[in-house]
Amino acid sequence: MSHVAVVLAAGHATRFGSDKLSATLHGEPLLFHAIRAARAAPVERVIVVARPGLDTGTWTGEPTVEILRINSDAMSDSLKAGIAAAADADGAFIFLGDMPCVPHAEAARLAAVIGPAYAAMPRHDGRPGHPVLLSSAAFPDIADLSGDQGAGRLLRTRDDVVFDDCTDPAIHFDVDRPEDLGWLASRDRADKN
After folding, report:
1. pLDDT in tens, 122-154
2. Domain that holds residue 10
3. Which terminus, N or C, of the chain has the lesser number of Cβ atoms within 10 Å?
4. What is the rounded CA–CA span in Å between residue 188 and residue 4?
5. Which residues form the MobA-like NTP transferase domain (predicted)?
6. Which residues of the chain have pLDDT under 50?
7. Contact call for residues 65 and 39 (beta carbons, < 8 A)
């Protein structure tokens, strides 16, 4: 099975009040943490769907990191562009650029449980999270999405989605406000002590 990781990073983060994906966490832009999580997945390549002007960094080694620039805030446009670029893969992991704490081992667990299912998702305390692994069977349905709609609604209507029950609540945590970064930094300091 060949898998690709797609990192969605084309939004403008209006709730954050400034350039969220460039905000610093542990000395580097928030987006870099999401790219690193995507590179830790069992993938052949990583596609970062980014808005023009966003610093996506320079990544060497394997898997390769490709930057796909789009000029749209709509979640569906980012997702469709990433899936179109991954069309030759058997599946695509979807990572969000504002989720810096996704456990790196989760993607491998999703790859192990997906089998013939439409998609695989991590779940903590009964709630699904990220990353999501879409099989290629989902790709045509993603192409039909519109507006600020991700794959969530589509996945909730399917009975052929499998779940990996995990113990890490970080599969739910996305950065929405500047104070979220401060909370993350203090949490990480506490974890090191």
Report:
1. 999 999 999 999 999 999 999 998 888 788 888
2. 3-192
3. C
4. 29
5. 5-160
6. 193
7. yes
> What is the distance of C-alpha 74 from the center of its chain?
15
Phi then psi dihedrals of residue 76, to 5 deg: -65, -35
Task: Give the pair of three-digit tokens for residue 113.
Answer: 């449980």
Cβ neighbours of residue 17 under 8 Å, at least 6 residues apart? 177, 178
The pTM (predicted TM-score) of the whole model is 0.93
Q: How far apart are CA 26 and CA 165, in angstroms?
A: 28
Domain count, the chain: 1
Burial class of 99 by CB neighbour count within 10 A (0 to 12, 13 to 18, 19+): buried
Q: Kindly report the backbone phi and psi dihedral angles of residue 78, in degrees, each rounded to the nearest multiple of 5, phi listed first.
A: -65, -45
Please give the structure tokens belonging to residue 51: 């808005």
Residues in Cβ contact with 45 at an 8 Å cutoff, skipping those fewer than 6 apart: 4, 5, 63, 64, 65, 66
